[in-house]
Structure formats: structure tokens, C-alpha cells
Amino acid sequence: MRFNQIMIDEFTLLAKFPRDSKMQGIKLHSDAEPNLLSAAQRLFDKGVIDSPDGGYLTDLGLDLIEHVSVIHSALKS
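== TIGR02647 family protein ==
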């Protein structure tokens, strides 16, 4: 198994979402890093977030953020 840069960009964006409340989302502005804007569009296309510029996590996104959190906790120093 190997993570490519596209996956890492998507992980990075997912990690920016608040985990304290399902009622909080994020908004990417047009001057955000291009890799994050592209990641947002891909996550939207996959049904992970509800807007191509961030928005809120869908049910799938909420499941994924749990996994991202576990991976982050396991790998951080």
C-alpha cells in the first residue's frame, strides 16, 4: 500500500475539519493553496464533503475523519 500526493492532500484537507461538532465546516477561499482546492473538489466529487470549496462533512466524511484521526494519532511523534 502506498499513499500518493493526491491522497496526502485529501488527508491534509480532511484533517482541517473540526472534529468537535458536526455543525462546523470549513470554507476554502479562491486564494487557498491550489493542491487544497483540488483536494476539495475531489472530496466533493467522492461525496465526502458537501461543497466543492469545503462546506461540511457528509456521513462518509464523518467516517473518514475518524480514520484520519486514528492514523494521525498513531504516527505522530
